[in-house]
Design goal:
This protein has 362 residues and is of the alpha/beta class. It is built from 18 helices and 13 strands. It has 2 domains: 184 residues, Glycogen Phosphorylase B (Rossmann fold, 3-Layer(aba) Sandwich); 152 residues, Rossmann fold (3-Layer(aba) Sandwich), CATH 3.40.50.2000. The N and C termini lie close together (10 Å).
Length: 362
């Protein structure tokens, strides 16, 4: 039996690892080993997602916790190297673009062990984003690059990656959604908040460019207050965002707005119940751009760039500048927003394609 290490470090990773874990555990040629680095260690940011996605307790938990980018990367490398030396896998599978992705790739390749990167080739071309650095480093040294879309293939080829290292498998995030869709539809979170289907907007903001600077955050808060007079908003607040809101004295402005429903971060099923019922989503997340395109929901991404341009060229996503939030919401409410379409291989069967590809390489 070939050991396959599946690395999960932060919440977006769990959603990408889950369908692959469930697919590989049914195979007789491999043994998937679930490794949680602990980069997100708050129960609301990790444990709930494991439960929602039917994942068992990790086989190994590195318990890294918070810290600077360098601290997290160094701690993950040191801890994972020990596992690699004691239990070398046939393949290490890393996903996404968090610090753990790059750190585990570095540790494995320093020991000349093969690495596959799931969700490879995405590029924002904004090197001020830590995630972009993680993507670039990981894709340069990983052996196998599983991509979600044609633009990702093109990015890698333009960077000189050999074509035989690139395999387009599709979007694993949508496998996660389809895996628990019945539970999502049964959850009825909007109803529990007194909201009607398609009668509210959903907000998620956590990126440093949006929430760390007082002036930028204050402008966003004011836009949300104005928008909420036209449509109620639900805002599950990321710990980083809440800390910044409190530090800059802005949390009370949201609390006092009668049509803004604030909550703690949610598990995957409850959160996707909100996405599914929403009229629109305002976000700076990467994965939500994909989920809204898949579901045909207008997505307003409060960023200057996106590493998922296919959600703009083919889907329902548009980049929105700070001074465009209110007008963009009005466009959606007036029915002036693209309906979009689903990209190829965004079909809920990505894990099947990955398993078939991996089986021929062990």
């Amino acid at each position: 039996m070939s050991l396959i290490h599946l690395i999960a470090g932060a919440r977006p990773n769990f959603m990408k690892i889950a369908p692959l874990y469930h697919r590989l555990v049914r195979e007789d040629w491999c043994e998937p080993v679930l490794i949680h680095t602990g980069q997100h260690y708050d129960p609301s940011m990790s444990d709930a997602f494991f439960q929602d996605l039917g994942l068992p307790q990790p086989d190994m938990h590195l318990g890294i916790g918070s810290g600077s980018h360098a601290e997290q990367t160094g701690k993950v490398m040191t801890a994972y190297e020990k596992i690699l030396m004691d239990h070398p896998p046939a393949w290490t599978v890393v996903v996404g673009d968090v610090n753990s992705t790059m750190a585990c790739t570095l540790a494995a390749k320093k020991l000349c062990l093969p690495v596959a990167h799931l969700e490879a080739g995405l590029r924002s071309r904004d090197r001020t984003m830590p995630e972009e650095i993680n993507r670039l480093v990981t894709d340069v040294i990983a052996d196998l690059l599983w991509t979600p879309s044609p633009d990702a293939d093109e990015n890698l080829l333009a960077e000189g990656v050999a074509p035989e290292r690139i395999v387009r498998v599709g979007n694993i995030m949508l496998d996660s959604f389809e895996m628990v869709r019945d539970q999502v539809e049964a959850e009825r979170v909007p109803e529990s908040l007194g909201l009607s289907k398609k009668g509210y907007g959903l907000v998620t903001l956590h990126r440093p460019s949006n929430v760390d600077d007082a002036e930028t955050l204050a402008a966003l808060v004011e836009s949300l207050v104005v928008v909420s007079t036209d449509i109620p908003l639900v805002f599950p607040i990321h710990p980083r965002t809440r800390k910044s809101l409190q530090a800059h004295g802005l949390e009370s402005r949201l609390i006092e707005a009668p049509n803004i429903h604030l909550s703690e971060p949610m598990g995957y099923i409850r959160f996707m119940s909100l996405v599914l019922g929403s009229r629109l989503v305002l976000t700076d997340s990467g994965g939500i751009q994909e989920e809204t395109t898949y579901l045909g929901i207008p997505c307003l991404t409060r960023r200057d760039t996106t590493e998922r341009p296919i959600t703009v060229t083919e889907g329902t996503n548009r980049l929105v500048m700070p001074n465009e939030v209110e007008s963009s919401v009005r466009q959606v409410l007036n029915g002036d927003w693209p309906t979009g379409s689903r990209p190829e291989f965004w079909d809920g069967h990505t894990a099947d394609r990955i398993a078939a590809d991996l089986a021929g390489r062990v």
